[in-house]
Amino acid sequence: MRELRKDPIISRWVIISSERGRRPKENQREDEDATVVESTEDCPFEMGRESSTPPEVYAIRERGTAPDTPGWQVRVTPNKYPALSPEGEPTLHEHGLFVSINGVGIHEMVIETPDHSRQLDAQPVERIALILGVYQQRIRTLRQDPRVAHVLVFRNQGTGAGASLHHPHSQIVATPIIPNRIEQELGGSLTYWQRTGHCIYCDLTEQVRRESEFVVHQRDGVLAFCPYASIFPYEVWIVPEEHAADFADADDRLLVVVARVLKTVLLKQREALGEFSYNLVLHTVPAPQAVEREFPSASTHYHWHIELYPRLTKPAGCEWGAGVFINPVPPEEAARHLRKLDVAAAMAGDANAREHPDSSPTNE
Amino acid sequence: MRELRKDPIISRWVIISSERGRRPKENQREDEDATVVESTEDCPFEMGRESSTPPEVYAIRERGTAPDTPGWQVRVTPNKYPALSPEGEPTLHEHGLFVSINGVGIHEMVIETPDHSRQLDAQPVERIALILGVYQQRIRTLRQDPRVAHVLVFRNQGTGAGASLHHPHSQIVATPIIPNRIEQELGGSLTYWQRTGHCIYCDLTEQVRRESEFVVHQRDGVLAFCPYASIFPYEVWIVPEEHAADFADADDRLLVVVARVLKTVLLKQREALGEFSYNLVLHTVPAPQAVEREFPSASTHYHWHIELYPRLTKPAGCEWGAGVFINPVPPEEAARHLRKLDVAAAMAGDANAREHPDSSPTNE
């Protein structure tokens, strides 16, 4: 069974997906060690093991290599244990207080590199920009599906962040609804825009820059900062300073800057925290059909950004039960700590890093 | 530093509490084993070790015993590492997009029993009812503080649920704001009431009873069910069938029924899941001063209840980053499983259980 269900009281959408329960680790408890696939022998994402994933839907590959064979640099495949199914039409069902949509959607894996152990912060900036570019391609393609209301990109790094595979990867989930958090952001930014005529993210980055205590890093029009009301210690947001609702519109120059800032932040976090687990999530505007329907002015008041949540604390009753997070590290302290860390040496390693080989996208 | 801060975009309150960081386990990672105080030797909640907690504010004790000495059955003390401070006045500060209230509030521990290892589901029903009665007492007392907008009661059981102490205990957090989730519930129930003239929880329990597939247990006017849009596998809500906004108004007869249903559900969950971690949270109406100010009709449209979240899955990027939970167990399947489990033998043990000794509340 795959179904999207709406909580009748707080209108929160949840994905009920019993197929998801077939994953090797799903019955894991939070208090047990996760059985992460660590060794290359068992890893389904290794070069040469392309048949252990569903057929690829997109790849950056060496010219002349065929889909689902070696020669790729970044490879996108359907998730083997998808939370949503690509089959069928999303239909709204109402039965008394129970509202559902059949679990239609697309769930993909982005295999970020053939290198089993080279995590995102150890990649050259060019490779990170390449991965961001792949996100853009998939967002554009998936939005063409009229059933899709929103495309979410996220990345779970480490067992503490819910990753079940070690090999560097991100996930893409295209849903027939606008996810709860994105809808809250759109609602908040709309209200602010109606009141002030401004984009709240533009005003926020301006205040953060002016007062500087929350700033972690700033470069070529991209700002990284610890948000004022961070829910997690060392949480960081990365926001383009120039107004832009849609990540898919970012040009190659901006992608390289974002990649550089993202790498800088991850290196700083690792320097501050040691080896750590984190979730990364890309917040961008919904698909045009959903924007048109629900937030027609979104391009004016919404603003794409990346949120990074290091997973150092264990949310409990207060967080789950009341939605109130207790964060033991004031974000201005985290920002001060991260700001002063010098990661220039680790970043400079890039200068000597090999460019990715002669590659071109295929299979779009 | 202790401060409540409001996210400028989605208006979510967070507690920033650097004092909280001084707890022995706070810098724990989610992917490490939590250093739970397991042995009675190190446990600050043992009988005879009353001086290792702040002075008690309430207790059920044997007649004639003095506060902070042995002889108690249930004991309430301020949290040694409180998220909020009982000193000062809550004042709203606005600075550009940054809105805060100084971190005023009350954070208490309810030590549920002198028995280090007897967790809630192993307690006699009478003891559980006694603990629920203590919650009521503290809710009533704390609401008399004009600075308090809401009193939240929750319970973290097991390291997977964020518990840092093994000895059976609950927590109470009185805040100068209405917690985010409670506010969402009040907003949802208000909207429904304005549209239909009904309490949504009353209509919901009626639909659940009528269709029965989500029912886990029902007894003497108290219904336990797996909610239609459960975010966690085997999540259960316990709701009084008769309309009542305020848990503090429940009479002793109802408390005993709720205790019996709660124990039954916990035993069923343990039978289904083995030893498991969970969060329990009590959702009741805010303090009169906050209700008056923000939801004057709350007693008509709100409805108190208990939510139980077994912690079997590890929320990751989709949950944290987009607010969309992926639940691999359809709640009707969980309900069917829990419903058919027979825990009568474990419940019957109660009949022989000793009543709690001649006790009376002190220190209120």
In a few lines, what is going on in this structure?
Chain A is of the alpha+beta class and 364 residues long. Chain A has helices at 125-143, 180-196, 200-211, 252-273, 288-294, 298-301, 317-322, 331-340, 344-352, and strands spanning 2-6, 13-17, 58-62, 72-78, 92-95, 98-102, 106-111, 150-157, 169-175, 215-219, 222-225, 236-240, 278-283, 305-310, 325-327, 359-362.
What can you see in these coordinates?
The structure is a homodimer of 364-residue chains. With 364 residues, chain A is an alpha+beta fold. Chain A has one domain: HIT-like (HIT family, subunit A, 2-Layer Sandwich). Chain A is built from nine helices and 16 strands. Chain A has an eleven-stranded antiparallel beta sheet, with helices on both faces. Chain A has a four-stranded antiparallel beta sheet with strand order 2-1-6-5, with no helix packed on it. In chain A, a hairpin with a 2-residue loop joins strand 5 and strand 6. In chain A, helix 1 crosses helix 4. Chain A is globular. The first copy, chain A, starts with a strand and ends with a strand. In chain A, 53% of the residues are buried. About 5% of the residues of chain A have low confidence. The interface between A and B is large, with 93 and 93 residues. Strand 2 of chain A pairs parallel with strand 15 of chain B, so a sheet runs across the interface.
